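Exercise 3.2. Students should predict the tertiary structure of the chain below and write it as structure tokens, then compare their answer with the key that follows.

Predict this chain's 3D structure.
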Amino acid sequence: DEFENVKNVFDRSSLRYYDIPGDHDLPASRDAGVAADTYFRQVFGDPYQEFSVNSTQFILIANADIYTGIDDEQWFWLSNILKTNPPVVRIVLAHKTPWHPTSATKVMGAETPEVANQAKQLDVLLSQTKVNYLISGDTHFFADFPNSTESYKITTIGAVTEERNLAEPRFAMVDVYSDGAVNVKDTVIN
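Answer key:
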């Protein structure tokens, strides 16, 4: 029901939008005895996808499941997408970041060793395939930092809610310029 309510709000906005599940979007399906992303898929469709706007490629990955991380089907899809000739700018959006310089609790794999191994593999894959940016949620605070090898930038964004939020409600604005420069701006909701 919550997914359908959110989808109705998005649809009424007339904005073009794309969704990926977060870690709190999965337990209801799991508790019902079905795959963790079942309810999300029923309302929003595929939890991972790719699209381009001008010379910018956006790749949305579904890595919020703390128990399984990224399944084999998505790994195959992601590897193939990233091995194509890169556009001017390549931005990956995910729920969890595979690496953080100061936090071991808000990263992909913090709860499960197998997923932690996936996080390392993801960081290597993104490093080797000319990704410019990874933008992730889940941390509930805005921060910019390079990945573990300084080959791409990571931005964690804040949350739009007041509950369980370390800062004021916020979202990020992403500007991509014709020369390939990217600016991610922390935007507080007043």
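Discussion points: Residues 2 and 8 are 10 Å apart (CA to CA). The longest strand covers residues 170-176.
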